[in-house]
Model the fold of this input.
Amino acid sequence: MAQTKFVLDEKDLPSRWYNIQADLPAPLPPVIHPGTLQPIGPQDLAPLFPMEIIKQEVSQERWIDIPEPVRDVYRLWRPTPLYRAHRLEQALGTPARIYYKWEGVSPAGSHKPNTAVAQAYYNHQEGVRRITTETGAGQWGSALSFACQLFGIECKVYMVRVSYDQKPYRRIMMEAWGGKVVASPSKETAAGRAILAKDPSSPGSLGIAISEAVEEAAQREDTKYSLGSVLNHVLTHQTVIGLEAQRQLEMAGDRPDILVGCIGGGSNFGGFTFPFLHDKLAGKRKDLRVIAVEPHAAPSLTKGEYVYDFGDTGQMTPLVKMYTLGHSFIPAPIHAGGLRYHGMAPLVCALYDHKVIEAVAVHQNPTFEAALTFARAEGFLPAPEAAHAIRVVIDEALRCKASGDRKGIAFNFCGHGHFDLSAYERYMTGKLEDFEYPAEKVKAALTGLPKVQV
Ligand SMILES: Cc1ncc(COP(=O)(O)O)c(C=O)c1O
Done:
């Protein structure tokens, strides 16, 4: 059998991140201050982020050096392997060539530490001692707790209530790395108390947890805020994934026709695909299809509107232009907690708007079916988020089987599902629910958004 695993040396660890802002078909729409409705400046973001991160957020430089102390931490698990999924191909009987980049080997078990380590480092450099954040599935909270521990920073995590209840082991993992975890909505912030007053049994959402974390950081002199997805600098940090994958596919002597990534706020999708889109945007790979996969329960790209909206439910963040379901929309409690977000990264939205990328929505039962097909062939048990990508990879591979096409399909396998076993159990005992697209709720959430003229 041909080679299975394509492994880079530590010396091949990328030394720069790729910033796709330099190559977009048009500049990103400005970020807007919710009070003045004018574009914001760096000083508006200074209470929340260290200056180096604010600079990266607006940088138009194509390449950004990865600081040596960050590369040094990356070396604990990077470069990550790229696999050829021979066994999955055989199980499906497809002529397609399937590859996956395996990010589950990081300490936290997903791609999230790629930016957590960078963000903790820049905060540390600027003397920050305390960081707040939110987490959906618990993957991001674990990644930031781990990274903060390495740089001597205290980490406070607002964990979405439904995940807090579904995944107690993720909480314990965060605490093992010194993180302090509270279920969101909580009574600790005005934003949390307002939600609880309306709905004491609210399952929470990423939008609510962001409001709580931002509120605390904005009010405390000693505290900054960190976001695990959506923002430009986060997606840029994640490009270390795609940069490695490009070299590994060269080692394999292959060139993918289709790239796939699941999409919550856009960071694993962007991190994996942007380095490849560099060529597509330069007109060199016009035929490359790049597919983002989201849940039907939170279908921001496929069903949302491309308008200005808040990044959070409590209307505390600046306004960004994105595909959104409305900041007050609370997605159904699917097990892919990391995909339960009303909005989407502005960079991904701009690429979707320019038709550079495609998007597909899937339900959770077929997603878990795909996860089991994958686990039974390749061994690794996917996180429910990653399984969204696997569903579409399998669908594309089966299309190749029907047509006889020998396409190359590569996806980012962004995390393991070792803390998601109760979701697997629910699927295997037939108890998992598919949530239909809540058209009425989204319509209601989309009315009354601020009208921004730029
Ligand atoms: C394993 C995994 N994949 C994907 C996501 C979705 O986020 P993003 O779109 O930023 O990659 C998450 C978020 O928590 C996650 O934990």
